[in-house]
Amino acid sequence: MNQIRTILTEGDPHLRAVSQPVEEITSDIAKVISELHATLADFKARTGFGRALSAPQIGEPLRIVAVQLGGRPFTLINPAIVWRSEE
Predict the structure, then answer these.
(1) Counted domains in the chain
(2) What pLDDT is recorded for position 10?
(3) Cystine design at 55: which of 2, 64, 68, 69 (Cβ 3.0–4.6 Å)?
(4) Which residues pair with 65 in a beta bridge?
(5) Per-residue model confidence (pLDDT) at position 87
(6) Which domain holds residue 58?
(7) In the 3-class helix/strand/coil scheme, how is 38-70 assigned residue by residue?
(8) What is the pTM of this model?
(9) Dihedrals φ, ψ of 35, to 5°?
(10) Which residues of the chain carry a pLDDT beneath 70?
(11) Taking a C-beta distance cutoff of 8 angstroms, is the pair 38, 32 a contact?
C-alpha cells in the first residue's frame, strides 16, 4: 500500500523552494508519484475536495503533479506554464 503523506500548507518554506526537473523515471521517482496519487485520493475521500496535488506539497522538490479529473488519475512531469492571462 502507498504511504499517505502530510500535505504542507501555506507558509511552509518548502513550498517556496525551486523544484527540480525530473530527468528520468527511477524507482524513487515512481514511489513519489504513487505516494502523491495516494495522498490526493485520501484527501479527496476525506474532504470531498481535491483535483490536483504537486510534489512540493508533500515535501518533494520535484516538478511532478498528480491530477484527478473525470475519475481518471494522470501525472504531469515537468509541466510548464506557456501562457497566462493578463488578469
Answers:
(1) 1
(2) 95
(3) 64
(4) 54, 76
(5) 85
(6) 27-77
(7) HHHHHHHHHHCCCCEEEHHHHCCCECEEEEEEC
(8) 0.90
(9) -70, -35
(10) 1
(11) no
What pLDDT score does 23 carry? 97
Long-range contacts of 8-12 (CB under 8 A, 24+ apart): 8/56, 8/57, 8/58, 8/59
Residue 14, C-alpha cell as written in the block = 518548502
Total number of residues shown for the chain: 87
9 located within any domain: no
**C-alpha–C-alpha distance, residues 64 and 17, integer Å:** 14
Dist. CA 63–CA 77, nearest whole Å: 6
Angle at 70 between CA 64 and CA 71, to 5 degrees: 80
Flag whether 18 is in a domain.
no
Residue 58, judged by CB atoms within 10 A of its CB (0-12, 13-18, 19+), counts as buried
Q: Which amino acid is at 29?
A: I
Residue 2 in domain: no
Report yes or no on 65 lying in a domain.
yes
